[in-house]
Amino acid sequence: MKMFVALVLDSVMVLMGAVSLAESQVAQPNPGSQINPSLPFPAQLKKTAVFIQTDCEAAPDALSKLSTEEQAKWFRHEIDAMKPESLAIMMPGYVGTGFLVSLRDSRLDDKHMFVYLVTNRHVVQPGLQDGVTCTVSGYHVSMNAKPDANHPNPWVTRNDMQPTVQWVFPDDASVDLAVLPVEIQPTADSSYIGTD
């Protein structure tokens, strides 16, 4: 566990300059808790991890590149009615993982902290590894939620985000990290990896 936390914190420290910039943009103080060291490691990890799906718009010629089986899912009159310049087929989403990191600030009381979603840059900019990023049409972040009246057991909630959210990246383009200031809802069953 200590080795994992050390690696995570090393990665986060690379982003500290970007986090300062992100904090000044949209960060909101979050109530919450850092990792409870008395929990077993899998439970600790589960509470900090999130899944991120990035949806991309297809290029105008995307329909012709779909397999015959994929094209068969569309009605012929729908295909014929589409204009190439306005075609925006939602392609399968790109999915990756991220984790939540907290940063305490002297301007806040002990119960509040700034929380950031940290992931790989290629997760939020699909195609980056090929030199051509896609046009992002939206993001979806899934995380654990606390049991409630409709869900007697812990469950997963999906939060949709606009493609215009301001991810922050390191100045060094070879560092494959991205950070986003986030506000965590009280219904989330999450913990944060602390930077202190």
Structure characterization notes:
By secondary structure, this protein is of the alpha+beta class. The protein contains seven helices and eight strands. Strands 1, 2, 3, 4, 5, 6, 7 and 8 form an eight-stranded mixed beta sheet that branches. Strand 3 and strand 4 form a beta hairpin. The radius of gyration is 19 Å and the shape is globular.
Compact description:
This protein has 196 residues and is an alpha+beta fold. It is built from 7 helices and 8 strands; from the N terminus they run ααβαβαααββαββββ. Strands 1, 2, 3, 4, 5, 6, 7 and 8 form an 8-stranded mixed beta sheet that branches.
SSE order and pairing:
Layout: H1 2-14, H2 16-26, E1 29-31, H3 41-48, E2 49-57, H4 62-65, H5 68-71, H6 76-81, E3 94-103, E4 112-119, H7 121-124, E5 135-145, E6 155-161, E7 178-182, E8 193-194
Parallel strand pairs: 3-8
Antiparallel strand pairs: 1-4, 2-3, 2-5, 3-4, 4-7, 5-6
Number of helices: 7
Major sheet summary line: 8 strands, mixed
Secondary-structure-derived class: alpha+beta
**What would you call the shape?**
globular
Overall pLDDT metric: 76
- Rg to the nearest angstrom? 19 Å
Estimated helix fraction:
25-40%
Strand content: 25-35%
Tally the beta strands. Answer: 8
Low-confidence stretches: 1-26, 84-90
Order of helices and strands: HHEHEHHHEEHEEEE
Quaternary state, please? Answer: single chain
Distance between the termini: 16 Å
